[in-house]
Every structure is written in structure tokens, then in C-alpha cells.
Design goal:
Layout lengths: L3 E4 H11 L4 E9 L7 E8 L24 E10 L2 E6 L6 E6 L1 H13 L7 H7 L2 E6 L11 H4 L10 E9 L4 E8 L2 H10 L7 H17 L11 H6 L6 H6 L7 H5 L6 E7 L5 E8 L9 E2 L3 E2 L4 H20 L9 H5 L6 H11 L1
Parallel strand pairs: 2-6, 6-7, 7-8
Antiparallel strand pairs: 1-9, 2-3, 4-5, 4-11, 8-9, 10-11, 12-13
């Protein structure tokens, strides 16, 4: 059942009002002449809501960098007579993420879980708790190569404040009509307080049922193995020759890690000022495909070969993250496959392993 109905023009007006108090992040179209088609979408900060393009298919990168920046200062330290003092730095800027697809919402849910497993990462949750999320459902696969249906991530029932379902245009003006579901009390209060939405009619509910049926028919399976069976498949494939054969093409560039919405590994480093006695502890993204990821003291590298790093990443995505967190470690967005200059494909790996078994 839908909670409300809102027109696109009214939604844009409401997001514009939020811009007075929050920074607005959402899909923005950019000209990329070397691509076919020569357009790409990116999650970026905008000043006005009409700069957003909610008709986008997919964004090249997920919005994760607005919750876990590629580089952030955890605390600043200063030497004093009695030792050192440390002052933590938190980013609590009020933010709205607009137009987040179900796969990326699943990735954010994973972040919420893993950053609160053994201890609560206050730097992550400072941003997360200051962030409102307006989700946008996908009527059909956003592009070729995605396998979100296999991973169960093409739909979602939680992890957002407000979820929008594009039900078609309103009249002859081309104004998109969104069905709305509330995910949090804050989302409900925001929309109801504005009085810009309407109570769904019986016709709206029928349109929503039709939308869901069309969506179910539009998504197909790409894997030859059920998601639930991937851990067992990998458990029998640790010594497969496929890892070495595939890794011969791998440049170990880490593009797959950096484009992945669920990769959360990081490195910690201290940066000191030129004047001695002060500096910062910083956190920066890291990736398991990078050659030095598993390098430790004594110059020993636990995964010196590209094949072992590739295998490690696949095992984490399809088995180990879920065993640890209870949530899928891969959302099937295929950003890693699109970013890979060697054309290494996750679906092909899973299906070839299934054929071997």
C-alpha cells in the first residue's frame, strides 16, 4: 500500500526548501563525449533541486563517498608538556541524498551494520544520522550487466526516509506522478507537513500494482547459481584454476574496489605538520586488489599474487561479508565490471565456477 502521491514539480519544490538548511546530493548529468551515449550521471552536490535529473538510469559511482569520504581526518593531535591531546573531528553537516536506487540503499544498510558490529564508528554515524535519504525505485534494469535480482537487491522495504515509485505522467503536462512510501518518522513528517502530497486513490493503488508486476517481469536472473548457494559454491572452488586464468588479465589497479558501493576497507595514517608537535590521524579508502593491501612488517605479503587477491575479493563479496554481517556483500550493480579495464566480469566468474562444479 502506498502512503502518499506526489507530483514531480511539487517534489522538486520541497527539495528546494530543504536546500535552505541541508546540502543536496543527487544525480547530475554530465557530458562525456568519449562514451556512447555521451552522457553519464554522477551523485553531486547541487544548489537547486532542478539541477537534479531523476530520470537517470544509473550513476557511475554510488553515493557512498558522502557517508565514507575517500579521505577524512579522524582527529587532530598536539604535543603538550604532559603528553599529547587529541581532538576528534566529526562531519555533521545536514545532508539529503536524493534519488538513491534500491541497490545503493542495500549498500548503505550494509554500512550501517558493519560500522556498528564490534564498536560503533562515531565518524560514520555522525554523517549518517545527519543524512536524510529519498530513494527512487527502478522500473527496469538500469543498464546491461546488472544482476541485482540475483542478489535480491532490486527491491527494498527499509533503509530510506522516503521512497518514490514513478507511476507515469500526470495528464498532458508530462509531470511524473510518484507513489510514496515512508521509511521513517522523519520522512513522514517532512512530506505530510508540506501538504504537497495527496492520499492515494484506488486508481493509484491499481497503478502501483501494475508497476510492481511490470517491474517483476522486467528483471531477469543472470547467475546459474542461487545467491544462497554461492558460499557453498565458493567453498568447493578455492583451488580452481579459474583464479589464475582470470588474474592474468588483472592490472591490480583497484578500480573494482573504488567503484564498489559495498567496499568499506580503509587504511589509517598519521600526517604531521612541518612545525613539529602537531598533526592529524587520517582514514583513507583502501582496496584488496591493490598489491600492497596485505603487506605487513617484514615485507611479507599474504596475497602477493593477483590471483589470490581476486579470489579474496570474490569470496568477500559472495560469502564472507554475509557470514559476518547477515547482509549481502554484493548488490549486483556491476559497477566493478564496468570499471574494469581488463573486462573481468563477476557474473562470468560465478557461472564458470558453477560449470566446473
Amino acid at each position: 500500500m502506498l502512503d502518499r502521491i506526489i507530483l514531480h514539480s511539487d517534489l522538486i519544490g520541497l527539495v528546494d526548501e530543504l536546500a535552505h538548511k541541508r546540502r543536496i546530493i543527487g544525480p547530475v548529468v554530465r557530458d562525456v563525449p568519449e562514451c556512447d551515449p555521451p552522457l553519464r550521471y554522477f551523485y553531486e552536490e547541487v544548489e537547486r533541486a532542478d539541477q537534479l535529473d531523476l530520470s537517470f538510469n544509473y550513476c557511475v559511482y554510488s553515493p557512498k563517498r558522502y557517508l565514507t569520504p575517500p579521505n577524512e581526518t579522524l582527529f587532530a593531535f598536539r604535543r603538550e608538556d604532559s603528553g599529547f591531546t587529541a581532538t576528534p573531528e566529526y562531519d555533521r553537516r545536514p545532508t539529503v541524498l536524493v534519488g538513491v536506487h534500491p541497490c545503493d540503499l542495500h549498500a548503505i544498510r550494509l554500512y550501517d551494520r558493519v560500522f556498528d558490529l564490534e564498536f560503533r564508528d562515531e565518524h560514520y554515524f555522525a554523517r549518517r544520522e545527519a543524512t536524510m535519504i529519498i530513494g527512487l525505485d527502478c522500473r527496469a534494469p538500469c543498464t546491461d550487466g546488472v544482476f541485482c535480482k540475483d542478489m535480491g537487491t532490486n527491491t527494498i522495504e527499509e533503509g530510506f526516509d522516503v521512497m518514490l515509485y514513478p507511476l507515469g505522467t500526470d495528464g498532458d503536462e508530462g509531470n511524473i506522478r510518484y507513489g510514496v512510501m515512508f521509511g521513517t518518522k522523519a520522512g513522514r513528517e517532512w512530506l505530510l507537513y508540506s501538504r504537497q502530497s495527496a492520499v492515494p486513490t484506488a486508481a493509484d493503488e491499481r497503478a502501483f500494482e501494475k508497476y510492481r508486476a511490470e517491474k517483476e517481469a522486467a528483471f531477469s536472473f543472470a547467475l546459474h547459481t542461487r545467491r544462497e548457494d554461492l558460499p557453498q559454491l565458493l567453498g568447493r572452488s578455492y583451488d580452481s584454476l579459474l583464479w589464475d586464468a582470470t588474474a592474468r588479465r588483472c592490472y591490480s589497479c583497484g578500480s573494482c574496489n573504488l567503484s564498489c558501493p559495498t567496499c568499506y576497507c580503509f587504511n589509517i595514517a598519521e600526517e604531521t605538520d612541518l612545525a613539529p608537535g602537531s598533526g592529524r590521524r587520517q582514514r583513507e579508502w583502501d582496496g584488496c586488489l591493490l598489491p600492497e593491501f596485505a603487506l605487513v612488517a617484514g615485507d611479507h605479503n599474504f596475497r602477493a599474487k593477483a590471483a589470490s587477491r581476486l579470489r579474496h575479493r570474490i569470496y568477500r563479496k559472495a560469502a564472507w561479508v554475509q557470514e559476518r554481517s547477515g547482509l549481502v556483500g554484493c548488490v549486483g550493480c556491476a559497477r566493478c565490471d564496468r570499471a574494469c579495464t581488463a573486462k573481468i566480469n563477476s557474473v562470468e566468474i560465478y557461472n564458470q565456477l558453477a560449470e566446473e562444479v
